[in-house]
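sry for the spam today, last one i promise. struct tokens for design, 444 residues
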């Protein structure tokens, strides 16, 4: 043994505090790689000397944590230990415990621990693989608290709002991209818990990083969940507003699938003018707010551009076409049960004039839900009269495209009146030139 050997600073020397012989090889920094080497020598020390070493070198808590991970059967004790000393522990060892919690489906404990570590320990980082496992567990179990944590860490990171930035308008703290199916699952959890604002945040995230046209069915699912979440809240006005955009995003029977498409229908005329004049303004006058004007002025003064990752994305437009849909398909009442329930409550006491006004406030396809609502409250006669009046408020749309088979099937299922059923079938033949759909005929 070399008695004159110098003890290097910032390195642990167990011999300095121990009465037992410890190899000089333990003179090493505490890192995840060296903890395994230190562990067999550390456990040989008396408890009092272990405590003394830990007090002098808090990083030795990692050795104690690894001992607990190997031998401690009580996960609650380990949980409390990590919560108390998390700022001194290596992320690699903490993730082992988190992984074990996930395997045992202890999602509440995992979410609680992650919430504390992510907000109190700036050095803690969780691997993308463990995040993926955590998201799978959250989506499978439909855990709202876990989905909220994922939203505020991966979708719209809360740290972005802690500092004021005049050049970054959208959240740039995105560690990695969440796949599309997981986004739908998260939005479904928020919808089930009446959290409409976070469903909207999921859609904004999807709009930034994914294509509407390429992932049109994912996009449709997200739009449906957003409408349903507001329907659960009873917000009819917002539902009609969202349903309008939802309806215009759908394919119409007289629009060819291979035509140019667009993500939305708002500001379409401004976009056409911009294309014709070869100009692409960032914002339009009707959508500017005081903060936008202030940030644009600062950008001009600094001679720079504002960071906006969604600019010119998902804008499918043409200067020679009208409302081009991005979703190929049709709207079904069965896809929006909460909206059907809400409209049923509203139309139960409405007169014909009010029903027509309600239709004008939204997309023409809202008539599907109004007819369903009238049938739900045993008013099939009124539903048929309502359908006959639709062509007067939408004169530019053919009756065949305006009134779908769903309407006739719903009325036929709701009535026992033979005369009314005959009247429904006669009106259907009149619209379709004596052609009768098989499903309509079966309902009759």
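last one done:
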């Amino acid at each position: 043994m070399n008695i004159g050997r110098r003890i290097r600073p910032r390195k642990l020397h167990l011999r300095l505090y121990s009465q037992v012989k410890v190899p000089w090889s333990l003179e090493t920094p505490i890192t995840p790689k060296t903890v395994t080497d230190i562990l067999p020598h550390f456990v040989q020390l008396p408890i009092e000397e272990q405590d003394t070493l830990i007090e002098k070198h808090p990083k030795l808590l990692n050795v104690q944590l690894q001992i607990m991970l190997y031998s401690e059967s009580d996960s609650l004790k380990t949980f409390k230990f990590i919560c108390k000393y998390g700022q001194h522990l290596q992320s690699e060892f903490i993730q082992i415990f988190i992984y074990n919690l996930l395997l045992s489906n202890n999602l509440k404990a995992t979410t609680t621990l992650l919430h504390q570590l992510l907000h109190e320990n700036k050095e803690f980082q969780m691997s993308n693989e463990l995040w993926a496992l955590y998201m799978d567990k959250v989506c499978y179990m439909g855990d709202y608290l876990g989905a909220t944590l994922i939203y505020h860490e991966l979708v719209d990171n809360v740290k972005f709002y802690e500092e004021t930035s005049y050049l970054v308008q959208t959240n740039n703290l995105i560690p990695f991209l969440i796949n599309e199916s997981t986004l739908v699952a998260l939005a479904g959890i928020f919808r089930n818990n009446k959290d409409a604002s976070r469903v909207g945040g999921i859609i904004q995230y999807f709009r930034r990083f994914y294509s509407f046209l390429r992932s049109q069915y994912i996009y449709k699912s997200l739009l449906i969940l957003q409408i349903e979440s507001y329907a659960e809240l009873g917000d009819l006005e917002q539902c009609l507003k969202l349903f309008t955009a939802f309806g215009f995003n759908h394919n119409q029977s007289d629009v060819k699938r291979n035509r140019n498409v667009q993500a939305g229908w708002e500001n379409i005329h401004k976009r056409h003018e911009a294309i014709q004049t070869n100009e692409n303004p960032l914002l339009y006058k009707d959508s500017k707010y005081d903060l936008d004007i202030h940030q644009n002025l600062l950008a001009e003064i600094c001679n720079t551009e504002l960071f906006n990752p969604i600019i010119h994305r998902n804008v499918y437009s043409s200067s020679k076409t009208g409302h081009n849909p991005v979703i190929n398909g049709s709207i079904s009442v069965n896809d929006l049960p909460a909206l059907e329930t809400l409209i049923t409550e509203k139309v139960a006491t409405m007169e014909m004039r009010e029903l027509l006004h309600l239709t004008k406030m939204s997309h023409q396809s809202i008539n599907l839900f109004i007819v369903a609502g009238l049938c739900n409250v045993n008013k099939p006669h009124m539903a048929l009269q309502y359908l006959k009046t639709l062509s007067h408020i939408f004169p530019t749309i053919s009756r065949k495209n305006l009134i779908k088979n769903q309407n006739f099937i719903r009325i036929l299922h709701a009535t026992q009146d033979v005369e009314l059923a005959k009247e429904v079938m006669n009106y259907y033949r009149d619209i379709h030139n004596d052609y009768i759909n098989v499903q309509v005929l079966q309902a009759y």
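The two ends are 100 Å apart (CA to CA). ok im logging off now
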